[in-house]
Amino acid sequence: MCVVVLSVLMLADTAYLLLHRMAEAVGWIRLGGTELVLPKFYQAMILSHTGIGVLLVILAAAFVEWHLPQVWRRHRRRAISTGVLTVVFGGTLLITGMFILSEANSRDNAWAWWVHVLCAALVLPVYVAHRRVSIWKPSLLSYRVVPVAIVGLTLLAVFAHDAFSNLEQGLSK
């Protein structure tokens, strides 16, 4: 359950960060920061994205180590292949995420950002496919609750960003 909650938080955080990037691209100033300083809320969301991502990979690695003896006994090829892909995408997300943080998201390193985005886009559907072919399938309720929670938390983050930006602007005047 902890992994599900962290995953929901990560997906909402990711959606917020993508919305922020899109808002900057189209010139929507209220969601973007100035050219010199990123909004504090945005910085906090980047840090939480990194922290949750690292924590998810650590938990996933521990789960995989615990889960492997059962996997080899069952010989469920589709579950194994989707599980391996999930682990590969998760590991690649960690590596590219740390690279983006340490080397900055520069034009020279744009490939790392795009690999990160591609793996992020692939890990969720592959993980869902993995769960659907596994012995313990997700409940039907989770297919409704999880997307609603992600959208709700993303909207909350957008509104919080706006509120904190207004507060920061008010304090700086």
Describe this entry's structure for a reader.
- Helix 1 (2-26) crosses helix 5 (142-172) and helix 3 (77-103) runs antiparallel to helix 4.
- The chain has helices at 2-26, 40-74, 77-103, 110-133, 142-172.
- The termini are far apart.
- It has 173 residues and is mainly alpha-helical.
- The protein has one domain (2-146).
- The chain has 5 helices and no strands.
- The mean pLDDT is 88.
- The chain is globular, with a radius of gyration of 18 Å.
Helix proportion range: over 70%
The gyration radius over C-alpha positions equals 18 Å
Our count of helices gives 5
Give the helix/strand class.
mainly alpha
Give a quick rundown of the structure.
With 173 residues, this protein is mainly alpha-helical. The chain is built from five helices and no strands.
Using brief descriptors, characterize the structure shown.
single chain, 173 residues, mainly alpha, 5 helices, globular
